[in-house]
Each structure stands twice: as C-alpha cells, then as structure tokens.
Amino acid sequence: MKILLAVDGSPYTKKMLAYLAAHELFSKKNEYSAFTAQAVLPSQARAALGKELVAKYYEDQGMAVMSPVVKFLARHGVTAHCSYKTGKAGELIAAKAEAGKFDLVVMGSHGHGALMNLVVGSVATEVLASCKVPVLIVR
Fold first, then answer.
1. Which domains does the chain show, CATH number per domain?
2. What is the mean pLDDT of each successive set of 10 residues along the chain, which is 139 residues long?
3. What's residue 112's pLDDT?
4. Global confidence as pTM
5. Cα 7 to the chain's mean position, in Å?
6. What angle, 0 to 180 degrees and rounded to 10, lies between the N-to-C axes of helices 51-75 and 11-22?
C-alpha cells in the first residue's frame, strides 16, 4: 500500500504519527511518503530576497518540518520519501495523492469544527472535498 503522510510540523502531525504507531499501522510492506506544503512568500518579499534566498528559505522550512518526522519514523523502522512544495496546502496534498497514485492519505486535523471551518477554512476539509484518494484524519 502506498501511504501519503501529510505533515506540517504542528502538534497535530505528532498526534497523527503517534496514532499510526499505537495502532500498528506502520508496516515494512507499505511504501510511505511524507509531504509538506508551505505557504508562498508574498511577492514583495520574494523580489526583495531574490531567488536563491527564497529557495534556501523554502528548503530550510521543509527540512524543519521533515526532520522530526523522519526521526520518528526511523524509531519505528519506517523510511519515507520526503518532499515539499509551495502553494495552497489542501490543493497540493490532493494533487500529490492523485499524481502519486497513493492508496491512502493520512493527516492530522486541528478539529476547529464546522463554524470555524466556514470562517477560516481547513486544509483537512479542502483535502476531503477535492481528493479522490481515501483520507484518514486523526484528531
């Protein structure tokens, strides 16, 4: 089974990983990929910093999110292909899941509730709405 772990470095990512470990959902038979989506810097900031600094910033941010995830997975005997992309998180996660032909997307959720999602939106809600791959949300 190909499993996409959507991570953002928040306590909800840690909770999701702990859930997977506690429920013995890690298996050497599965193929894991960890993916994080980063918000695009404002155009004025990108222009002021230049391409090299912006690329370095995105790389550093991606590594900051992935490093603890990789360490956690390694402690449980799991290796994962790690990647990041910049843009709208919900759209990127759904696109990655479909393009990579994943069997399952696993992600944590802040669990704001219906009213808060209506006001501020939710990455989990967007993934559920646009992803054709089954999604497991850990709250």
1. 2-138 (3.40.50.620)
2. 95 94 88 96 95 96 96 94 96 97 92 50 85 93
3. 55
4. 0.90
5. 3
6. 30
Q: Tell me what pLDDT residue 122 has.
A: 83
Q: Residue 22 CA to chain centroid, in angstroms? A: 20
At a CB cut-off of 8 Å and minimum separation 6, what does 123 contact? Answer: 6, 8, 37, 89, 90, 93, 107
3-state secondary structure the chain: CEEEEECCCCHHHHHHHHHHHHCCCCCCCCEEEEEEEECCCCHHHHHHHCHHHHHHHHHHHHHHHHHHHHHHHHHCCCCEEEEEEECCHHHHHHHHHHHCCCCEEEEECCCCCHHHHHHHCCHHHHHHHHCCCCEEEEC
Alpha-carbon distances, residue 78 vs 4, 46, 126 (angstroms): 13, 36, 28
Residue 84's DSSP bridge partners are: 36
